[in-house]
Amino acid sequence: MTRSIARRAALALLAAPAIARAQPRTMRLVVPFAPGGLTDILARACAEQLQARSGQPVVVENRAGAGGNLAAEAVARAAPDGTTLLVATQGIIAINKALFARLSYDPDTDFTAIAMLAQQPNLLVVSPRALPEVTNVAELIARIRATPGGMAYGSNGVGSFTHLSMELFRSMAGVEMTHVPYRGSAPLLTDMVAGTIGVAFDGLATSAPQVRPGGALRAIGVTSAQRFRAMPGVPAVAETLAGFDASPWYGVFAQSALPEPVLAGLEASFRAVLESPAWAAVLAQREADAMPQGRAALAPLIARERQVWREAVQRSGARAE
Q1: How far is CA 92 from the centre of its chain?
Q2: What does the pLDDT look like over 59-68, one tens digit per residue?
Q3: Predicted model pTM
Q4: pLDDT band for position 149 (50/70/90)?
Q5: For domain 27-120+248-316, which CATH number applies: 3.40.920.10, 3.20.20.70, 3.30.300.130, 3.40.190.150?
Q6: What residues are paired with 222 via a beta bridge?
Q7: Cα dist. 8→11, 17, 23, 272 in Å?
Q8: 86 class by beta-carbon count within 10 Å (0-12 exposed, 13-18 middle, 19+ buried)
Q9: Number of CB atoms found within 10 A of residue 173's CB
Q10: Who's near 8: CB < 8 A, 6+ residues apart?
Q11: pLDDT one-digit tens code per residue, 156-193
């Protein structure tokens, strides 16, 4: 090798780290569910808008399984550089610590909320075949109290958000009920249409077709603190049970150990997207609501959610392995 060639090779090696640093880093949004659900849809819409604004590649990685614990563990153990974020619901952040006997991560200390993508209420649904006289929450509570041994209710599974929502409802109403778990919404709603089970909480996306005009089921309440704009004729459960609030939310969480400037930068990037007219259009299309933004606003919200849902797990006696 000649002296000039050797010198150029050395200069290239010295320049390589600087070139690498100049390359845009890919951000990963890790979703704890399979593609197609609302969590995945919102994550992909947010990724698209983040990438358009920053020019930085943003990808969605679906890592389903173990009640969201696989995704949470992957993010908790990722390199602490701010490029791997978790898109989470109450299950991972507020419920799993009480529900699972062992976790390989600590949702209280490993993650910090930096943004809330959306909130969408569930519906309190009754079967007209099983409960023809029940048209509102007060009538439901009266009917439960008049049922010897307590009324049976359905859910999407033991420890599911719909299960724990009914445990919260039962506790606040002071009534006795019997839990009948199903393997998801489809078989639950089939039995409700048939009148086999009388009442349940269910997701808006799955139950709305059954409760709209001409449907076989009746929606008597929404789980948000106020009426839901997409269904203004359905009262909030809180109009009868003051303080009831059990709406699924979809948040973005970073590793708590990240340096403050990195957390602040992530917060600013997401806030710019989630407070934009383009994001408002995404929420309108998906019949979801915006939520407060910023770590200062989210900290007390997350603290409340942890308390409410861990108490609901304890009351239910649910456990998962």
Answers
A1: 9
A2: 999 999 999 9
A3: 0.87
A4: confident
A5: 3.40.190.150
A6: 123, 236
A7: 5, 15, 22, 44
A8: buried
A9: 19
A10: none
A11: 999 999 999 999 999 999 999 999 999 999 999 999 99
